[in-house]
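S., here's the first fold you wanted:
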Amino acid sequence: MKRIPLMQATFALPVLLALSSLIGLTLALLGDGLLDVGSWIFLGIPVAVIVWLYIRAARQP
């Protein structure tokens, strides 16, 4: 089994969440209609991940 380097394992999720936020904000600035829908989806991903992690942490003893 191949081990994942520590830096990659540590920063993978924060980088993906930052990219999602950046894409969402860019789409929100570019236009209306479908771009607004895309911006809501991309900006909702970090919120959904945070809520999911919070619920998961609260269930652990």
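And the second, which I think is the more interesting of the pair:
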Amino acid sequence: MDLSWIMPLLVSISVIVIALLVILSLFKAFYRKIDQGQALIVNDLSATPKVYFTGAMVLPVVHRSETMKVSVITLELNRTGKEG
């Protein structure tokens, strides 16, 4: 019985599994999640920036990202006299 086909099969399966693990680890490393009440602004190579409210992939060399508060901010103004 010839079992010489088992070793190339095991090597190819292990290469595929390792490649998937690398892709998943890169996704985990470069995904930025944003809290509620904030927006993620990603500047990439296009002319207009992209805005995300939940999270996005931010690649370190290609993208530049900033967070911005978008929640409602209450301001209390005291106006007295002529300005009242």
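Why I say that: The CA atoms of residues 26 and 81 lie 61 Å apart. The chain has one helix and five strands.

Talk tomorrow,
H.
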